[in-house]
Predict the structure.
Amino acid sequence: MVMENKALRYALIGVSVLFLTLMLILPLIVVVSEALAKGWHTYVAAITDPFAQKAMWLTFEATLTAVIANTVFGLAAAWTLTKFSFRGKNLLSSLIDLPFAISPVIAGLVFVMTFGRISYLHPFLQSQHLAIVFAAPGIILATIFVTFPFVAREIIPMMNAQGRDEEEAATTMGASAWTIFRRITLPNIKWGLLYGVILCTARAMGEFGAVSVVSGHIRGKTNTLPLHIEILYNEYNFTAAFAVASILVILAIVVLVLRNIVEWRTKREKEV
Amino acid sequence: MANYVELKHIYKKFGSFQASNDVDFSVEQGRLVGLLGPSGSGKTTILRMLAGLESPDSGDIFIGGRRVNDLSPGERGIGFVFQNYALFRHMTVFDNIAFGLTLQKRTKAQIADRVHELIELIGLKGFEGRYPGQLSGGQRQRVAFARALAPNPELLLLDEPFAAIDAKVRKELRQWLRETITRLGVTSIFVTHDQEEAVEVADDIIITNRGQIEQMGTPLEIYKAPQTPFVAQFIGESNRIDDYTVFKGFETAGEAAPGILRPEFIEIAADSSEILTPLAAERGVVHAVYFRGSNSQISVEVKGELLTGYRTLEKSQLKEGDEVLVLLHRVYAFREGQTHVVENRIKTAAESVII
């Protein structure tokens, strides 16, 4: 019986390792080796290229805005959904999941329809000299849309499980809403919140579909890192494409490490 | 003594559910009062309205002579102990107890003094640095109690304070809580669905049913003179009978009426030598016998009704099918929604002759 289990265990581990190697590790090795195929000099040139720098900056801008917006929204939504009861609560809860269900391309199209030339809002936007579609604001909006469930979905189950008791206890002792949030709610959900923020960051950095539709691919203006990689690739500039891609890979690994640290901390906290 | 807490004509609805239906009672200063009722009877709602965690649809709430309807929970001078304690899980025992004091902007030294005093009171010295997750149920309960007491509330509210503790610790904790509250003299109201607990801990019991107050009084009063059919049935163990006037000693010229017989009102005898007044007894047949440790519980059929009574182990053992004498000492009779205690007339008459 023990022998059988051992055999099964090794078989399963073997299958997992093989699968991960083929699907994840091998592609990563390819990315790095391709990026360095023509030597360090070409690699550095590719990532210090002004267009690449501009794309990096835009990705950073969109990610940061999306993470801040979605953290605030996620906290507000989770608080509303778990600490109050009201009509339409289930509807709101399912609306949060909408970006997971919709294809990012459609999300992008929605913004083009809403703010683009055929929109009723277009004359007004133009009179205010506001460019949304085919400009940075559109990219930021699309990124926010695609990533907004991450923080909320991460903390809603936590807050649900914790209930309202601790908050009510603080209320009976005369704590204000802000004090309750700062001293009771936030410390209870901090690791879940951080985990949500990390996932949100990872997704925002790599977003392609929705951003691709609203961007218009104007080099040096509306290209994010993933879009820039696509352009380089389509121009058969493989080395540069892989060099820029390696930046995203490094960022992804950083996020992965952070994620593991947070998971480890959460686990340790639970054991206390 | 003055009424410390007063509820006047309180109504509260949750959707279509009437949680409070004209709730009206008052509690004297320094009393320890138990709100007792089945689940869904509205007792926790009363407690939460007192705390300000719910507001009544209509009616007035007074605490210490002040109308508190429009005051926030923090301004009411109450301490609240939650059913599952609701301790702050990321704070130590010390910080939990200190929480209410830090909100009052007291100095660090004052807070430390008060917290240590309370930790002494609950007997958890040396546990200051522990987290709630590292404490047993009974210890958590005591920390919750200390936390509620820390800001010196004038009214202590406890929601099912012993519900989540195992049976053995519960008994111990009940006595401890009763002694501590009596010593501190703080007016306290607790909610329970366990009548044994209410009887053991409370000075006064308020019985709730379907959002209404059925009766308020000392445990003894409620036990001896239940005012409504619900109370008679809810308190103690009881046999409900459809018509008590069919039994010997209870015949009346009046109409048939239902009643309640407590097991301790019933004497079951193997023969006439075992009872003082055999003439007042009915004949019955033993239906079942259950051994209960300190006595036997006997189910006996009398005039088509199945009655439950007890018999001490000192007397001869009965078995199923035995013919026995059953003396009914008294019943709680229901007439026009009121409960009356009716004594067995033949028995009382016979006793007076003997004397």
Summary: Chain B touches chain A at residues 51-53, 72-75, 78-80, 82, 84, 86-90, 99-100, 103-104, 131, 133-134, 147-148, 151 (CB under 8 Å). The CA atoms of residues 283 and 325 of chain B lie 5 Å apart.
